Amino acid sequence: MANVMTPKLPRQILATSDPETLATEILRALKYRVGKDMTVATPYDWLTASIKVVRDRIIDQWISSTKETYEQREKRVYYLSLEFLIGRLMRDAFANIGLLDDMRVALKSLGVDIDVIAGLEPDAALGNGGLGRLAACFMESMATVNVPAHGYGIRYANGMFRQEISDGWQVEFPEDWLDHGNPWEFERRERSFEVGFGGHVESVTSKDGRLERHVWKPVERILAVAYDTPVVGWRGARVNTLRLWSSMAIDPLQLDAFNAGDHIGALRDSNKAEALSRVLYPADANPAGQELRLRQEYFFTTASLQDIVQRHLSQFGELLSLPDQAAIHLNDTHPAIAVAELMRLFMDVHGVDFDKAWDATKRTFAYTNHTLLPEALESWPVPLFERLLPRHMQIIYAINAQVLLEARSNGHFNDEQIRSISLIQEGGERRVRMGNLAFVGSHSVNGVSALHTELMEQTVFADLNKLYPNRINNKTNGITPRRWLFQCNPGLTGIVREAIGDKFLDDVEKLKGLDKFAGDAAFREKFAAVKRANKERLAGFVSGRLGVKVDPSALFDIQIKRIHEYKRQLLNIIEAVALYDQIRSHPERDWLPRVKFFGGKAAPSYHNAKLIIKLANDVAKVINRDPAVRGLLKVVFVPNYNVSLAELMMPAADLSEQISTAGMEASGTGNMKFALNGALTIGTLDGANVEIKEHVGDDNIFIFGLTADQVEERRAGGYDPRAVIESSPELSQALAAISSGVFSPDDPQRYRSLIDGLYQSDWFMVAADFDAYAATQRSVDKVWRDSPDWHARAIRNVARMGWFSSDRTIRQYATEIWNAIP
Fold first, then answer.
1. HEC secondary structure over 544-565
2. Is 673 one of the annotated active-site residues of the chain?
3. Catalytic residue among 57, 471, 673, 793
4. In the annotation, is 334 catalytic?
5. Largest Cα span, the chain
6. How far is CA 46 from CA 41, 53, 123, 267, in A?
7. Which of 18, 461, 603, 729 is most buried, taking the most CB atoms under 10 A from its CB?
8. Of the residues 150, 362, 431, 561, which is catalytic?
């Protein structure tokens, strides 16, 4: 059987890519680019040399792609995102240009194991969760489907944080992903732009007293320096660019102060500037954290727009044609300040009047909303905004006046609706609403699943949708099958190729051909063997890393995602406690062996989320050590969840936990990755679960709980969680055990407030959905016992997930929003 990762390649790569040639080039790179002889080279040296050899081949395609875009005047897409969770790039790039196997042979001839050095590559600490991973999938798919694109973000030196678990508690440490350098990136010091903050605005008038323009005079200036990483599409046909900005002081060393003996003060400006690109999502529970976060968002946005404008002017000579040649996409509200910044560049720098600038701005931008949660729809205190960005505050007021006058003249809006449309939140602290700014400044506003888009129209943007009725549209998220099937699950990919051929490698919707093999006993056996091997790999990792022994024969039940109350890890933990009680109380029953895996980070200032992590570890400590359980139930929290861990855990999952409170998860992409790798989903009708259910079929997914409408009805109708809890013996017993200190004997009061919150309000409907969730888990047990049936359902999930490819999503963006048709 041909290897999974051997695509057809561009001619110039094929000509010089046999293992012997590659081995020679690796040694040359080791000597002349790393400065080492093979006798003293460390594994990191071999990693760097190998990457440099493949990167050289990528550069040819990178230059060719850029030149072609320029010569053919193709429309470019610019994707602005505060996160790009790209993970490790070595396998991704090697595989996409078809050199993984030849590099494996070449390195083996030099006595180097490619798997060992690949494991040394750090996960790039450029994101946190689904938002950043979606951006990474989108960048790969844009290159794959031949959309010319630049991604723009921040080159975080320390990322969000590295999570360690100490006595069950999350402890945050700086990420050190750049300690050995980044062999993928190119510093572009010539692409540096000034970024200003504070100061005042001056008006420039003509001789006859007419206002000509405004000039912002910032009091503080720093530099944004570009670092470029090539993004390789499948088969290497196009290579796009991820451009990340690093901050530095314009005058990094104040020599006079240093010579005067003020060594710390001489570096103060440098340290302050570099802080902008050091940490992702600084804690914003205090004013200093809020200010740093706003500074970060403006920093990367203005640098990106200045770069885009400069590139456009160098090619086309004037700026008003920008909407015809550039589609700028705002990935959530973080880069929403771009609307005001582009207006400033149009008006203050290039002399365009307001009306023309506003028309061009709206035609240039599109905005993806990723959440209905109020705290994620960013808003900033007006005094902070006005102090840091005084000219932008003026522009936002001007835009707001235009929008509100338009709404008032419409005649169909009352005062309350006018207030909800306003870019300025009145009543109490006045705040700038970044979601509203992104909405009014874009020609397209999309949700990321059918349900999310419908709720967006009905809730957070209901009045804006009424004012601009054709602006909202849906683009259901997708994932790249190259990373989330071909690379992370080569065993499954191999047996699929044997069964249906290779066409699905280029068109993943061809996986539909696998459907008929769900009833094939021989194929089910192969599928089961692949799943078993993946589970053994995860079991080995957990044993080696955490010292916890798990049985690969058990059902692997996995919930890995950001820790948040709406994602309801708490519901999963409570059900584990209830199951623990049942196993001990009824040892005579034929219980199903199960391992519950958890993984994810909690925001450093999110108390309840961190408490949930501690609870998961406390429950694990008690259950895993209790001989009465007889190993039938184990709980494992895997620290520092990231892309590489996802690539290990998702192929090993039997059951995928997608149990968010209905109406609160915009889409989810973990649900797609699990299903593509042959896990069955247990979930609510939330986010993309709704569409997954439609594609895989009712019999191949486990749905439970309240719908989004029912959740709203409960919240509005005087829901009494105490009555619900007291009517459920299993739930009340489990909550009593947690609340009374059974799992926290060192601090019996530790979880009292967490459990009291369920009795008092239960905003996330944990109690309301518990009985349905527990009953559905017992349905899972029943299906699991019939192995052929379980594997048939899992195979149908794989076969029917092709539609959830990010290639499909990007083609929809390109044709329906960006007008950048591949």
1. HHHCCCCCCCCEEEEEECCCCH
2. yes
3. 673
4. no
5. 96
6. 7, 11, 18, 36
7. 461
8. 561
Catalytic-labelled residue, pool 567, 695, 750, 796: 567
In this predicted structure, the answer to whether residue 6 has a pLDDT above a threshold of 70 is no
Is-catalytic flag, 75? no
- Which pLDDT band, with edges at 50, 70 and 90, does 5 fall under? very low
Domains assigned to the chain: 73-87+123-477+810-818 (3.40.50.2000), 485-804 (3.40.50.2000)
Is residue 203 classed exposed, middle or buried when 0-12, 13-18 and 19+ CB atoms within 10 A define those classes? exposed
C-alpha to C-alpha distance for 168 and 149, rounded to whole angstroms: 43
CA atoms within 13 A on the CB side of 179: 9
Q: What is the DSSP letter of 448?
A: S
Overall pTM surpassing 0.90 (yes/no): yes
Rounded Cα distance, 683 and 670, in Å: 12
pLDDT of residue 12: 46
The DSSP letter of residue 248 is: E
Mean pLDDT of the chain: 93
User: Does residue 356 have an active-site annotation?
Assistant: no
CA 493, 495, 498 angle in degrees (round to 5)?
110
C-beta contacts of 8-14 below 8 A and 24+ residues apart: 8/98, 8/235, 9/97, 9/98, 9/235, 9/236, 10/60, 10/61, 10/97, 10/235, 10/236, 10/237, 12/57, 12/60, 13/57, 13/60, 13/61, 13/97, 13/98, 13/99, 13/236
Tokens 């960005």 label which residue?
A: 389
| pLDDT value of position 773 | 98
Is-contact 94 343, C-beta < 8 A? no
Dihedral of CA 118/597/515/532: which sign? positive
Return the amino acid letter for 235: R
Q: Is the pLDDT of residue 23 over 60?
A: yes
**Placement of tokens 């083996």 in the chain:** 108
Q: Which has the closest alpha carbon to 124: 159, 153, 93, 96? A: 159
Q: Residue 801: name the closest of 704, 707, 688, 653 by CA.
A: 688
CB 815 within 8 A of CB 75: no
Given the residues 669, 681, 776, 809, the one annotated as active site: 669
**What would the pLDDT profile of 229-275 be if each residue is shown by its tens digit?**
999 999 998 999 999 999 998 876 565 655 566 545 655 666 677 88
Please tell me the distance from the alpha carbon of residue 434 to that of residue 298, in angstroms, as a whole number.
12
What's the pLDDT tens digit per position in 31-87? 999 999 999 999 999 999 999 999 999 998 999 999 999 899 999 999 999 999 999
567 given a catalytic annotation: yes
Q: Is the pLDDT of residue 779 over 60?
A: yes
Whether the CB-CB separation of 231 and 192 falls below 8 Å is answered with no
The verdict on whether 562 is a catalytic residue reads yes
